[in-house]
Amino acid sequence: ALPWPRLVSAAKDLDSAKMPAGPFASTVGVGRAEPQWAELNRVGGQPGKDGVHAAGDKTEGPLDLGETVMSGDLGTAPKKVDLLIVGAGLSGAVLAERCSKELGLTSLVIDKRDHIGGNCYDYIDEHGIRASKYGAHLFHTKFERVWEYVQNFSEWIPFDHRVRGMVPDADGAKQLVPIPPTQETVNALRLDVASGPISSEEGMQAWYDRQR
Question: By its UniProt entry, which Pfam families does this protein fall under (predicted)?
Fold first, then answer.
């Protein structure tokens, strides 16, 4: 998960830091961040906190919900609650927590799966490796209050990724290029042979316009 608010806040403190002049301009190569911006992505520790781990549970295994909860027998559920929440994924979990803490409401959360967390559920496999049951997830937000909130429940690891794909060039030979297409992509694949290599932001915008 990439803590964008923290990066933005840190960036504001860099008096001499300037964003590159265009989306493809960089002193260290096309598609690479300027050094002062790349430094902000450096993993220097995990923001956030794991309340369960801090309380003494060091197993790193799935949260034990107990036989009563896992039985699925609603006869064991509370007879009276303020809210019935269907789904124990992120939305259901946040609703239950917020309504409990801010409004003092009680909730009954039900889910057809045998675990909480929805598609973000992870667990320790037979080899002792933490695995995401439904695939890895990235978390994005532009709201500082959201980032502050989620750090109360888990540790987060900054993550930066670039997408590249094998795409045939004008001669049919496959090239490893940035996706979606950038100036580097168009020039490497020679997609605009008639006009020649693209050398400016304006030229790249013109290429985009011709493809629409």
Answer: NAD_binding_8
